[in-house]
Amino acid sequence: MNKKIRTPAVETLFEAIIQLKTVDECFDFFEDLATINEILSLSQRFEVARMLRQHKTYLEIAEKTGASTATISRVNRSLNYGNDGYDLAIQRIQEKQE
Predict the structure, then answer these.
(1) At the top level of CATH, which class does the domain 45-97 belong to?
(2) Which residues lie closer than 8 Å to 86 by C-beta, 6 or more apart?
(3) How far apart, in whole angstroms, are the C-alpha atoms of residue 61 and residue 47?
(4) 3-class SS string, 57-86
(5) Planar angle of CA 78, 87, 90, nearest 5 degrees
(6) Count of CB atoms within 10 A of residue 39's CB?
(7) Sign of the CA dihedral running 32, 15, 47, 67
């Protein structure tokens, strides 16, 4: 866990996020919280992570998502050396869809 981001303010933000119950509530909250470009960037990274876990190539990912190879590489590094946050979220989405 990155101690630099573990602050009371960030913890409160994350607590607020997990209180949201529907996708519509998330849309409302995140549209108030962040810019459209910030939200799109986060969603792009998550889609890149999902595609990397599906063993898609960088070229396939770049073409489908518009992500740069630098972004794809950064997400790949997080998947390989991070805190497994992407994998946890991807797994939970898959379980919900089954």
Answers:
(1) mainly alpha
(2) 46, 49, 53, 75, 78, 79
(3) 9
(4) CHHHHHHHHCCCHHHHHHHHHHHHHCCCHH
(5) 125
(6) 15
(7) positive
CB atoms within 10 A of CB 61: 24
Tokens 């770049």 belong to which residue?
62
- Per-residue confidence in pLDDT tens, the chain, 98 aa: 567 899 999 999 999 999 999 999 999 999 999 999 999 999 999 999 999 999 999 999 999 999 999 999 999 999 999 999 999 999 999 999 98
The two tokens of residue 44 are 């792009």
CA 22-25-29 angle, 5° bins: 145
Q: Which residue has the tokens 């960088």?
A: 58
The length of the chain, given as a count of residues: 98
Report which residue type is found at 19. Answer: Q
Q: Where in the chain is the domain with CATH 1.10.1270.10?
A: 45-97
Residue with token string 């063993």? 55
